[in-house]
């Protein structure tokens, strides 16, 4: 019978491994978002779940265990008790601002109140490609329902874009103001899960983020002035081609950059699926032309200049 396999060894001796996990968990509870390798992220998230559970208990034994495990946070400027009010509103001054000595107030007050109705699942792991050099898998660990929840920001953008697509295609009511009807079933399910433990004010903030991204998509092309193109004088003869010194205007499209109206075939996800050079049989081939969101919804044969 094998023993001692409750957690990953992470290529370290026990004392080094325990200190590493204590540091990762303390940084996660303080910053609420950290980036590390995937095996470390899984172990740190598991330990952070246990520490937050101790914070929800609020008993003296729970405070003793949390105090014994957590490390003092670093690089966290907060006003000291003897700092003057005038210096507290100014820029960071190492002479008057010191780091907090403990994470216990945040754990037993803020985090416990945030997750009072949530039975578990306080952390989320998002894969973040691979690290340059040793090609180790990277991951982002975040605390859910926090101000730095990455998935919530991405979901708000998805809701804004799908709601805008619904208004433009069918001319129906705005799905952000009338509920979540009209979204894809998968997106609607993710929204219901993400907002299950949210307050009405937080739901309004989520809708505001989605509406802000929808407005950004509509104004993006006009704000950038379209794609990069030379400013040719109408009086210039057509046989004179624009040279290198011809002034240009518009957004420069970088290599690998995806605009709002470009298919996902040109993104990292499409490259991973091998969809860049694939032409699907029996279906219309995907248009990979660089364009903004408004240009992608023009009728066939209509150019952006006419619109």
Automatic annotation (TrEMBL):
PROSITE patterns associated with the record: RIBOSOMAL_L17
The family this protein is said to belong to: Belongs to the bacterial ribosomal protein bL17 family.
GO-annotated biological processes: translation
Name of the protein described by the UniProt record: Ribosomal protein L17
Organism: Kwoniella dejecticola CBS 10117
Any one cellular-component term (Gene Ontology): mitochondrial large ribosomal subunit
Low complexity composition-biased segments: 77-91
Gene3D superfamilies for the chain: Ribosomal protein L17 (3.90.1030.10)
Region ranges (Disordered): 68-92, 227-246
Superkingdom of origin organism: Eukaryota
Keyword vocabulary terms for this entry: Ribonucleoprotein, Ribosomal protein
GO molecular-function term, one example from the UniProt record: structural constituent of ribosome
Lineage: Eukaryota, Fungi, Dikarya, Basidiomycota, Agaricomycotina
InterPro entries: Ribosomal_bL17 (IPR000456), Ribosomal_bL17_CS (IPR047859), Ribosomal_bL17_sf (IPR036373)
HAMAP family found in the cross-reference section: Ribosomal_bL17
């Amino acid at each position: 019978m094998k023993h001692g396999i409750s957690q990953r060894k992470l290529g370290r001796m026990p004392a080094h491994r325990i200190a590493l996990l204590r540091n990762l968990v303390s940084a996660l509870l303080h910053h609420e978002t950290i980036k590390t390798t995937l095996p470390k992220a899984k172990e740190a998230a598991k330990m952070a779940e246990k520490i937050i559970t101790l914070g929800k208990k609020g008993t003296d034994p729970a405070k003793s265990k949390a105090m014994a495990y957590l490390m003092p946070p670093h690089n966290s400027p907060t006003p000291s008790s003897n700092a003057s009010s005038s210096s507290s509103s100014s820029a960071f001054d190492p002479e008057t601002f010191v780091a907090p000595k403990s994470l216990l107030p945040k754990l037993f007050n803020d985090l416990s109140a945030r997750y009072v109705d949530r039975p578990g699942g306080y952390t989320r792991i998002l894969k973040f490609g691979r690290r340059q050099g040793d090609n180790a898998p990277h991951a982002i660990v975040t605390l859910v329902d926090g101000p730095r929840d990455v998935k919530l920001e991405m979901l708000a953008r998805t809701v804004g874009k799908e709601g805008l697509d619904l208004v433009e295609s069918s001319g129906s009511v705005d799905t952000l103001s009338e509920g979540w009807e009209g979204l894809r079933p998968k997106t609607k399910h993710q929204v219901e899960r993400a907002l299950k433990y949210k307050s009405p004010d937080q739901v309004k903030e989520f809708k505001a983020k989605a509406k802000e991204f929808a407005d950004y998509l509509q104004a993006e092309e006009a704000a950038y002035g379209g794609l990069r193109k030379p400013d040719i004088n109408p009086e210039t003869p057509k046989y004179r081609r624009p040279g290198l010194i011809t002034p240009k205007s518009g957004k420069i499209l970088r290599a690998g950059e995806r605009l709002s109206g470009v298919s996902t075939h040109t993104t990292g996800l499409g490259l991973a699926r091998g969809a860049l050079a694939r032409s699907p049989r029996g279906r219309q081939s995907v248009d990979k032309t660089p364009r903004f969101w408004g240009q992608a919804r023009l009728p066939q044969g209509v150019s952006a200049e006419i619109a």
